[in-house]
Amino acid sequence: MAPGTGGRPVIDTLPWLFLHCLTLSLLAIGGAVATVPELHRHVVIEHGWLSDADFTGSVALAQAAPGPNLLFVAVVGYNVAGLAGALAAMSGMLLPSTVLTLVVSRWGSRRRDTRGVRAFVAGLAPVTLGLVLATGWLLARPTLQQPAAWLLVLGTVLLAWRTKLNPLWPIAAGALAGALGWV
User: Fold this and answer.
1) Distance in angstroms (rounded) separating the CA atoms of residues 68 and 66
2) N or C terminus of the chain with fewer C-beta within 10 Å?
3) Which one-letter DSSP state was computed for residue 180?
4) Per residue in 58-90, pLDDT tens?
5) CB neighbour burial string for 57-87, b if at least 16 within 10 angstroms, e if fewer
């Protein structure tokens, strides 16, 4: 049994983790990070495989590591069911989106000037924005009881929106605030 499976054998957890990531893959409009709220609901709230803090820590650790944003899926899967959980979650997340991307991109590139394809692409922008905002809210929620955290989140949003400042500076400010115990 893995520590994050709530006492259930890993063999019972793996198919559900794989199938859920398989369906989440189709929601990853704008990147895998947009699926964080739904993965959180499934892993933390619905099944109790991880605590809220463990889930948030998994996402934060993966985002701090160099590499693609998708790494958080492997870290969450690992924390749920070990190496097999990481493999189940990643293969579930990669399989449908990879196949769909290949098929749709070939089809769309031949029809990119049609009205329907242009409308579809334009319609994805608000969906992507909404999913990214939901992810940001979910990840910021554990620290929002602290006034310094509110200031840090609002300052980061304003800087990203109004300037071309490198995003590493607000990340460094957040790291410093955390190291000093402010958040």
Assistant:
1) 7
2) N
3) T
4) 998 988 888 888 899 999 999 999 999 999 999
5) bbbeebbeeeeeebbbbbbbbbbbbbebbbb
